[in-house]
Design brief:
The chain is of the alpha+beta class. The chain has eight helices and eight strands, in the order αααββββαββαββααα. The longest helix has 17 residues.
């Protein structure tokens, strides 16, 4: 009975999360960013944001634990351009498995702040394995973290989470992050690549795109 209930719950979560339209995912991602900005417990140091080479947000990432656990999520990412502005958003996916010790399903909003150009370049080439291709750690937060020295900010990628559920913290070591080409094409059309999205200055925009970029600006400013 528990297995049946668990399977049904996973199926429902996967359906509502993974099969949303591109516009819906952009709006969900923007709302997740706004919630993080409003959360006083999540205060990202200005040094981390100033050094950000890219930012990715995975709203409603599903984490499953039943002996063998895992996580899956679809998100949105922007890259800092040479003039300091942010690129048009493009879609990415996150997946991974790990050992778990209880029965449960939880949804988390995961924010990733890329600190190195090299880690962004690896992802743009196709995919990146977190922890192997780029170092990843829970991001520093709060006033004390803001006063840290340069030596305190060593990781290539920092993660921040907003959680509703029973698990504590998040581990994404070993998770694979890659592109969601279908969603990019759905939003922008014409078999567009992530590289073309990042380099473009004149893509057709929409309310969802503009709202997401405003949320990024509010986060980083």
């Amino acid at each position: 009975m528990k297995k049946i209930w668990f399977s049904l719950m996973i199926g429902l979560l996967m359906t509502t999360t993974l099969f949303a339209s591109a516009e819906e995912k952009l709006l969900d991602s923007s709302n997740a960013l706004k919630n993080m900005i409003r959360d006083s417990k999540i205060k990202i140091p200005q040094k981390v944001l100033e050094r950000a080479q890219a930012i990715a947000i995975f709203p409603g990432t599903i984490e499953i634990s039943m002996f063998l656990g895992g996580k899956t999520g679809n998100g949105v990412m922007v890259v800092r351009k040479s003039d300091g502005s942010w690129s048009y958003p493009f879609f990415v996916k996150l997946g991974g498995a790990g050992l778990g010790f209880q029965l449960g399903v939880e949804k988390k909003d995961i924010l990733m702040v890329f600190q190195s150009k090299d880690s962004v370049k690896k992802l743009m080439n196709n995919k990146i394995t977190l922890g192997a291709d780029a170092s990843v750690a829970a991001g520093p937060a709060g006033e004390s973290a803001s006063r840290g020295s340069e030596a305190d900010f060593k990781s290539e990628i920092y993660t921040y989470t907003k959680t509703e559920g029973a698990f504590v913290g998040v581990s994404i070591d070993g998770s694979v992050m890659n592109h969601d080409y279908d969603q990019n094409i759905e939003l922008y059309g014409n078999n567009i690549t992530p590289e073309q999205i990042v380099e473009s200055d004149g893509l057709v925009s929409s309310y969802a795109v503009e709202d997401f970029l405003k949320s990024i600006q509010k986060l980083t400013n």
